[in-house]
Design brief:
The strands form four sheets. An eight-stranded mixed beta sheet has the order 6-10-11-18-17-16-13-12, with helices on both faces. A five-stranded mixed barrel has the order 1-2-3-5-4. Strands 7-9-8 form a three-stranded antiparallel beta sheet, with no helix packed on it. Helix 4 packs antiparallel against helix 6 and helix 7 crosses helix 8. It is an alpha+beta fold. The protein is built from twelve helices and 18 strands.
Length: 439
């Protein structure tokens, strides 16, 4: 008999159905017994006539929470039932797998304990919703890109050189030599521009050997990247991204907004376009006015991101803000310099509810200028072999180049802030950090 999903039961009233899933709760009485069954689409109450079907009552009497069962019965309307106003009157019941009586986690378990038993933790509807959000967001992102002429690429995750910061590289032996896990698809996105792909995107894993234990950091995460050719300035990239964000947020709201409000008590706010734009210099003035003293002159600390976003929310009633024109000292060598002020870059970050979720820029595409900027970083970073290590990267710019720019977007950070959760571990399927490689 074909399985009926719980979400399909309203259209199957007064017919025989077969439902399968996990035992959520059990309520056994002398005359009647009730089992709440849960699958990935919802919950339903199973009704067992203990007096009329003692063999089924015996099965229920030995059930444990989170066991898996199959039940055959008639879907009937019962408005007194809170779970959708219906129940299944069971005629057949089969235990597929019996769970141990004592579960290793509960709602009060610490995050680390819950991560030890992540597959059990993920059974809860509010956890499942996180990955429904992720799915809808990625589908919408891809839809917007493809409608705008983008190609999807899959760049290698094994590299011969660093793609971002040499201090956060994972090294591994590679046939007598050394390879590195990719920190970003950046170099290969730029190669695609000079290969004539015009517009590309990628959603894939990246790796950072970052020893931080903060709520925003991990050693492996999903990066969402795109690159655009023939831009006039980094303002073109920001304009594209804000419309892209507006689209995928509208899709999340349309398809999952009611579920998010039900399970998390949060309303999905689709951001208006354009987003506020504030230079890093202006941002520092705004933050200093709050009395906060920063240890950085060229970048924002986490507390500064929160303070600035608070100001933007109060002033513009907006959850998103672009911070622009970062100093050269805070940005990679491949960011283009501001033509009017060579100490600044044509770059931006995007903050969402007090957290950086994007870093982007116009890239330097002129071979001689790019080489000079590498040599400059070689001196400032005291890395005498930097130019040599980037020889293959520089080749991408030797035979005709195009002006281009793009951004990298943090998927888990966005979902964390969307639901106002406190840690990226909560929205990562299986988190990886300095002290976690299992499960």
């Amino acid at each position: 008999m074909k399985r009926t999903l719980i979400c399909e039961l309203p259209s199957s009233l007064n017919t025989e159905v077969r439902v399968c899933g996990f035992v959520d709760t059990i309520r056994a009485m002398k005359r009647n017994q009730f089992v709440v069954l849960r699958d990935h689409t919802g919950k339903v109450q199973l009704y067992i006539d203990a007096h009329g079907k003692p063999e089924l009552a015996s099965i229920v009497g030995n059930l444990t929470q989170e066991s898996t069962i199959e039940a055959v019965g008639t879907a009937i309307s019962n408005q007194s039932v809170k779970l959708g106003g219906l129940e299944v009157a069971v005629s057949e019941l089969k235990v597929v797998s019996t769970a141990k009586p004592e579960l290793p986690i509960c709602k009060d378990s610490t995050l680390d304990v819950r991560l030890d038993w992540r597959y059990l933790d993920l059974r809860q509807p509010e956890k499942l919703l996180i990955f429904k959000i992720q799915t809808v967001a990625e589908q919408a992102m891809r839809e917007f890109w493809t409608k705008n002429g983008f190609l999807e690429i899959h760049s290698p995750k094994l590299m011969a050189t660093a793609s971002e910061s040499g201090s956060e590289l994972f090294h591994l032996p590679y046939f007598g030599g050394t390879a590195y896990l990719s920190q970003s698809p950046q170099f290969y996105k730029q190669m695609a521009m000079n290969a004539g792909f015009d517009r590309v995107f990628e959603i894939g894993p990246v790796f950072r050997a970052n020893p931080s234990f903060t709520s925003r950091h991990d050693t492996e995460f999903t990066s969402v990247d795109c690159e655009i050719s023939w831009i006039d300035s980094f303002a073109d990239v920001m304009a594209f991204e804000e419309n892209w964000v507006n689209f995928f947020m509208s899709q999340i709201k349309e398809k999952l907004g009611s579920s998010i409000e039900e399970l998390y008590g949060k309303q999905v706010i689709v951001p208006s376009v354009p987003f506020p734009r504030i230079t890093i210099k202006e941002a520092k003035k705004i933050i200093r006015a709050t009395g906060y003293k920063s240890e950085k002159d060229d970048d924002l600390e986490p507390e500064e991101e929160r303070l600035l976003s608070g100001y933007v929310k109060e002033t513009y009633d907006h959850d998103w803000v672009f911070v622009t024109d970062y100093p050269v000292t805070a940005r990679p060598f491949y960011h283009m310099r501001n033509p009017q002020d060579q100490t600044l870059t044509c770059s931006f970050d995007l903050l969402y509810k007090g957290l950086e979720v994007t870093s982007g820029a116009q890239r330097e595409h002129r071979y001689d200028v790019l080489k000079a900027q590498i040599l400059e970083k070689q001196v400032s970073n005291k890395d005498p072999k930097l130019l040599e290590s980037l020889e293959h990267y520089l080749r991408f710019f030797e035979y005709g180049t195009v002006p281009h720019g793009g951004y990298g977007f943090g998927l888990t950070r966005m979902i964390m802030k969307l639901l106002d959760l406190s840690n990226v571990r909560e929205v990562t399927y299986l988190y990886r950090g300095p002290k976690r490689l299992t499960p």
